[in-house]
UniProtKB/TrEMBL annotation, chain A:
TM segment ranges: 28-46, 58-78, 90-113, 125-144, 150-167, 188-208, 220-237, 249-276, 282-304
Cell compartments where the protein resides: Cell membrane
Domain Na+/H+ antiporter MnhB subunit-related protein, chain residue ranges per copy: 188-303
Name listed for the protein in its UniProt record: DUF4040 domain-containing protein
Membrane protein topology class: Multi-pass membrane protein
Chief location category: membrane
Key words, A-Z: Cell membrane, Membrane, Transmembrane, Transmembrane helix
Matching PANTHER family: NA(+)/H(+) ANTIPORTER SUBUNIT B, NA(+)_H(+) ANTIPORTER SUBUNIT B
Automatic annotation (TrEMBL), chain B:
InterPro entries xrefs: CPA3_antiporter_subunitC, NUOK/Mnh_C1-like
Organism name: Neoroseomonas eburnea
Keyword Cell membrane appears in the UniProt entry: yes
Keyword Ion transport on entry: no
Transmembrane segments: 6-24, 31-53, 65-86
Keywords annotated in UniProt: Cell membrane, Membrane, Transmembrane, Transmembrane helix
Location within or outside the cell: Cell membrane
Family: Belongs to the CPA3 antiporters (TC 2.A.63) subunit C family.
Name of this chain's protein: Na+/H+ antiporter subunit C
GO cellular component, one term: plasma membrane
Topology with respect to the bilayer: Multi-pass membrane protein
Length: 313, 99
């Protein structure tokens, strides 16, 4: 009963925040709603028994997206982009009607799902000992659906390439993102000194327990990226220039190692991304650590953005 | 029970996000609305995962892992969209077009 009440409260709050976001007049208000929405969505994922997703949603959906969107809202308020004309009242009503129809159709599909639900949980449980991992989600990510994870890590690298390609003329090869003056006092200066050591330990813990409990590389990488961004915004850490070979290696090493192990599996075991028997845990751990480092660097670079026009060196 | 509830919430978020994407003219609000739409799709998928609980797991781990991947990819796409928008605003700075 209390569970149902909690679900109803979380659901109503998420719905109210989503409606507020779409109705908001300013981008700032909408972004503030979006951060709150991300945190509440994390709670919804806990209620759905998906703690792995809850951690990711809180760290990436609310944390990193929040930093990105708040910065963007501030810069767009200073230099607005030409916007299209809003649709008239008749067209708005028509759009609302069509969107409501889509929502009702999906809702009807949810209500008419087959009973019992087809599930792969039993097969995952039966084959989990072969992966030497205790966390079923990690088993799926690193073993059964390793191809998805490999493609996903490549997408993150490509996104960094895409963001860097937006460098304005004259900025190529420079420091990523806007320059931050060193903050000497105030909450940011304090937190940027206080949090990173704690955050790094928590991230490594989440990475390490991810084998057997909720956690893993994405969550750990998001926390590490947040720690780097915190030090960057306080002017304590200057990121390397995007021309730096070491930085480029750091971004691509995880996906590269994963790909190399996949090809080695094709040669040794006859199937792409097959792990040789007895080596599974060691290889999975190697990929997890390399991917954590690469994804952390890539996520931070994505939030920092491309270099600015003038080279400040 | 909570699976159905959150599935319906996901359906509502898809509708709200789609509306924001089509009806709001501000580009940043459109990016936010697109994220709402994505969040709704993930929730619908998560509700299906929850219904597939079994073998001692609180939910079917296969959709859960794919949602996890999806959140990271959605974030990468969002950053790219936001950076495109910021570049557009920087480009328009020197010009003084009529609105």
């Amino acid at each position: 009963m209390t569970g149902l009440l909690a679900d109803l409260a979380i659901g109503a709050a998420i719905l109210a925040l989503a409606a507020g976001m779409v109705a908001a007049r300013s981008a700032f208000t909408a972004t503030a709603f979006f951060i709150a929405y991300g945190l509440l969505l994390g709670l919804a994922w806990v209620r759905l028994g998906a703690v792995d997703i809850a951690l990711t949603e809180a760290a990436i959906g609310a944390g990193l997206s929040g930093v990105l969107l708040l910065t963007a809202a501030a810069r767009l308020a200073a230099r607005p982009v030409a916007t299209e004309r809003a649709p008239g009242p008749l067209l708005t009503a028509l759009i609302a009607l069509c969107c409501a129809a889509v929502a009702v159709a999906i809702g009807a599909a949810i209500l008419s799902l087959p009973e019992p639900t087809p599930s792969l949980a039993a097969e995952v449980a039966a084959n989990l000992p072969a992966t030497a991992l205790g966390n079923p989600v990690a088993g799926v990510l690193m073993s059964y659906r390793a191809l998805d994870t490999l493609l996903e890590s490549a997408v993150v690298v490509l996104a960094v390439v895409g963001v860097w390609s937006l460098t304005p003329p004259g900025g190529w090869g420079g420091f990523p993102g806007p320059f931050h003056l060193r903050v000497e006092s105030g909450p940011l200066a304090l937190l940027a000194r206080l949090l990173p050591p704690i955050g790094i330990v928590i991230a490594l813990h989440i990475l390490w327990v991810g084998k057997d409990a909720p956690g893993g590389k994405f969550q750990a990488a998001a926390i590490l990226a947040a720690m780097w961004l915190l030090a960057w915004m306080a002017g304590l850490a200057t990121p390397p220039r995007i021309a730096s070979r070491r930085l480029r290696f750091a971004v691509s090493a995880g996906a590269g190692l994963f790909l190399a192990i996949g090809v080695a599996g094709a040669l040794a075991e006859g199937a792409f991304l097959a792990y040789p028997a007895g080596w599974t845990k060691a290889l999975v751990l190697a990929v997890e650590f390399a991917l954590t480092a690469s994804i952390a660097v890539a996520l931070a670079l994505l939030v920092m953005g491309p270099p600015e026009e003038e080279d400040r060196a | 029970m909570s699976a159905t509830l959150y599935g319906l919430l996901g359906a509502a978020l898809v509708g709200i996000g789609l509306f924001g994407l089509l009806a709001r003219p501000s580009p940043l609000l459109r990016i936010l609305a697109f994220n709402l739409l994505g969040g709704g799709v993930f929730l619908v998928f998560g509700a299906v995962a929850r219904r597939g609980a079994g073998a001692g797991f609180p939910g079917d781990p296969v959709p859960q892992a794919i949602i996890l991947t999806g959140i990271v990819v959605a974030f990468a796409a969002t950053t790219l969209a936001v950076m495109l928008l910021l570049r557009l605003s920087a480009e328009g700075e020197g010009r003084s077009d009529p609105p």
